[in-house]
From TrEMBL:
InterPro entries: Restrct_endonuc_typeI_TRD, Restrct_endonuc_typeI_TRD_sf, Type-I_RE_S_subunit. This is Type I restriction modification DNA specificity domain-containing protein. GO terms for biological process: DNA restriction-modification system. One of its GO terms (molecular function) is DNA binding. It comes from the Bacteria. PANTHER family: TYPE I RESTRICTION ENZYME ECOKI SPECIFICITY SUBUNIT, TYPE-1 RESTRICTION ENZYME ECOKI SPECIFICITY PROTEIN. Residues 422-449 form a coiled coil. Belongs to the type-I restriction system S methylase family. Residues 12-163, 266-435 form the Type I restriction modification DNA specificity domain. Keywords: Coiled coil, DNA-binding, Restriction system.
């Protein structure tokens, strides 16, 4: 907007500095910090967050009372709000702006929104200084009203479309969870079981085979370790002695009362603790200071996976590692990752590692483990843990702290998981992949259209403030009259401040004389 000039604006428009058409209302001594917010009260607390109201306050001395409507600008967040009633300002990053009488407050609200989005995001720096330096095109007074009416007409239509998209998105989320619920109650494969009764195992057979497989794998790990020790001794015992593998931890079987509290499963299914399906033991990821990030190997962090899958690798951070660290924390195909520390909303989210084209490690807020893939398909497990039922089970014993929660390896190991034979798991995985691929495609289209809506909203504002949204009326009084009004307001404000300062000085002098 800094390249705005009168030559590219309609006849009758004028230009002025943004800072010249607003007056900053002081909030000194009146702001309240977040810890002081009340759940209910007489006055709303308006801060720089996205919410229209972030809390309440009953302290009359904190109230901002002005010539409403006024604007609240989030200095860090760039959020813009139009406020119509007395309120209390949040403590940090709140700019309270009184519009000049020469510009319709709602028009200035939309213009400020446009500027806020147009300027480059400075992170947690203060943004108002950049808005204040911008130029603003001022239309004639009657045209201002027409522009606001047109913006609100177009935004109303746009908002209806956005609401429809958000509704569709919510419906897809409900459908996804309903699909997962049916999958892990055996309803998706009910007909398959009838047609393939000869391929089913009894729960007792399944459990026996799992125990035998765990023991066989442990014995194989012992044999491999013995060979590594012999090789280490042959080479003169250089370096660290190979670590003896730990015997697989046996988690207690679910009691009848535990199973009674869980959803009913088909006869050929079984509830089994996840820890008894893990090959070896779980492992937490690596912690490194921020100074080690930037170069080296990719690292998977808690924001890099959702709904059972990794996001695209291009978004990963890189981390400097020693050879030993890389060997200790490197991920392998079919590893299962579980988020062990996060806000409760995301705690327990998981994914299965696909084939990788380079070594990748994982951070300390994540744990990894391998499952006995002859009995448990990785995608079957991650789909279950991504369901409402699975997430609730794995987070059942979460430890809560301020703004975050955590689960440990025992919590994960004790999680009950519904298990059926591997053939049926394959059927379920195939059905889910087919149906959820359609869901993901629809969600992608919704996100694309939501982004297009944001672009269209900004385009409407751009046209509005370059004089291209509504037609001009030659009978309108030119905006030059409004500039005169702004000048008069500024002069009156300066006189008022001068008088207030003189009165304060006089009162101070009188107080000193009274003490003598």
């Amino acid at each position: 907007m800094s390249d705005l000039n009168k030559n590219n604006l309609p006849v009758g428009w004028e230009i002025d500095d943004y800072a010249n058409i607003v007056t900053t209302i002081s909030t000194n001594g009146k702001k309240v910090n977040q810890k002081q917010y009340e759940v209910s009260g007489k006055y709303p607390v308006i801060d720089q967050g996205k919410e229209d109201c972030s809390g309440y306050c009953n302290d009359e001395e904190k109230v901002i009372d002005a010539n409403f409507p006024i604007l609240v600008f989030g200095d860090h967040t760039r959020a813009v709000k139009s406020i119509n009633n007395p309120f209390v300002a949040g403590a940090d990053g709140v700019k309270v702006l009184q519009p000049s009488g020469a510009i319709t407050p709602k028009l200035l609200f939309y213009f400020t929104q446009y500027l806020a989005i147009s300027i480059k995001d400075k992170g947690y720096a203060r943004h108002y200084q950049w808005v204040a330096k911008e130029l603003i095109g001022i239309p004639p007074e009657n045209e201002q009203i027409r522009i606001v009416e047109k913006i609100e007409e177009l935004f109303s239509e746009l908002d209806k479309g956005i609401e429809s998209l958000k509704t569709a998105k919510a419906q897809l989320a409900v459908y996804r969870q309903a699909l997962l619920k049916h999958a892990f109650e055996g309803k998706l494969t009910e007909e398959w079981r009838k047609d393939n009764a000869d391929k089913l195992e009894s729960p007792e057979q399944l459990l026996q085979h799992i125990q035998q497989e765990r023991e066989a794998r442990y014995q194989q790990q012992l044999e491999d370790w013995k060979k590594e020790v012999v090789e280490w001794e042959t080479e003169g015992k250089e370096g660290k002695k190979p670590t003896k593998p730990k015997k697989h931890k046996i988690f207690p079987s679910l009691e009848d009362k535990d199973i009674d509290a869980l959803p009913t499963l088909p006869e050929s299914w079984q509830w089994i603790r996840l820890g008894n399906l893990i090959n070896g033991s779980a492992q937490n990821g690596i912690y490194k200071p921020s100074s080690d990030y930037g170069q080296g190997n990719y690292i998977v962090r808690i924001d890099d996976f959702y709904d059972g899958s990794l996001v695209k690798k291009g978004g990963f951070k890189r981390l400097t590692l020693t050879k030993e660290e890389l060997n200790t924390y490197v991920l392998e195909p079919n590893d299962i990752l579980v988020n062990r520390v996060n806000s409760i909303e995301y705690l327990g989210k998981c994914c299965e590692i696909p084939e990788l084209d380079e070594p990748i490690v994982f951070e300390s807020n994540i744990m990894k483990f391998k499952v006995l893939n002859d009995f448990l398909k990785g995608s079957f497990l991650t789909s279950y843990l991504s369901s409402f039922s699975g997430k609730n089970r794995i987070c059942d014993n979460a430890k809560h702290a301020v703004n975050q929660a955590s689960i440990n390896q025992t919590d994960v190991g004790m999680t009950p998981v519904p298990i059926c034979c591997i053939n049926e798991q394959n059927q379920i995985a195939d059905i889910l992949e087919q149906k959820l691929t359609v869901v993901e495609h629809e969600l992608t289209n919704i996100e694309i259209n939501l982004k297009k809506s944001d672009i269209l909203r900004q385009s409407i504002l751009k046209k509005a403030f370059s004089g291209q949204l509504v037609s001009q009326d030659p009978n309108d009084d030119p905006a030059s009259e409004l500039l005169k009004k702004i000048a008069i307001e500024k002069a009156e404000l300066a006189e008022k401040k001068k008088a207030e300062k003189a009165a304060a000085s006089k009162a101070k002098t009188a107080a000193k004389k009274a003490k003598i």
